[in-house]
Amino acid sequence: MGVKKPFSVDFYGLLVISVGIFFILLALVLTFSRSGWIVAIVGVTGMLVLRFLKREKRRRVIYLSALLALIVAFLGYLMWFAISPRVERLTMEDPSVQYRVLYNELGGELISLRPFGVGIGSQSIVSINEGLYTKLGIMRAVDWQPVHNLYLLVTAEIGIPGILCFLFFLGFVFLDAIRISGEEKKWFFEHLYGLEVQTAMMMLFSLLIFGLFDHFLWTLESGRLMLWLTISLLFGIGAYTRHTS
């Protein structure tokens, strides 16, 4: 007779997952990024809902949701001293919120002046030359930053035709990822059950939500890599399903 192990493989697997989730959420909290918190909530919730749509996965989703709730509650209790100031200051009086509103106004005004765009990477330069920052009351040079909205920034730099092409491209990416061999008569959500598709789609969706509050996906090398690598994942899924069908 073999010696009975005190813990099962499932226990160790759950322990590893729990520790991993804890440190990921702790790192997210320590970014002090409210936009990051919002996007994480949207992305995780969307992923759980998509998995819950598949009947045989529902029990696992419930277990995972309970585990997430416990870890979030523990982290909230442990780190509330750091979280609460960021949450309580989320009002229109918060300077970061005020500046984002002003940057969005600047983006809208620049689009009305140059509907065909000012060129990639030129939004801040043109805005400075046109005096748009000072016109909106942003007097310090350190605050002359890009528009903190991906879609307004893209429109300002490559124009209205450019943003329409960009949005059409993103829509094509999503549709291509869930279509198998061009069989468009299949139910639209049938292929959302695949874990690979769900993960890649929620990654891209979360990044695009983040784009409502920041510009790094367009202006920073790290952000561009994140965006286009995620888009490449969805393209790869579409190509793989067509090849194996």
UniProtKB/TrEMBL annotation:
Keyword Lipid biosynthesis annotated: no
One GO cellular component, as annotated: membrane
Pfam families to which the protein is assigned, alphabetical: Wzy_C (PF04932)
Domain O-antigen ligase-related: 20-167
Transmembrane segments: 12-30, 36-54, 61-83, 150-175, 187-213, 225-241
Lineage top rank: taxon: Bacteria
Membrane topology note: Multi-pass membrane protein
InterPro entries referenced in this protein's UniProt entry, alphabetically: O-antigen_ligase-rel_domated (IPR007016), WaaL-like (IPR051533)
Compartments where located: Membrane
Keywords: Membrane, Transmembrane, Transmembrane helix
Protein name according to UniProt: O-antigen ligase-related domain-containing protein
Organism name: Candidatus Jorgensenbacteria bacterium GW2011_GWA2_45_13
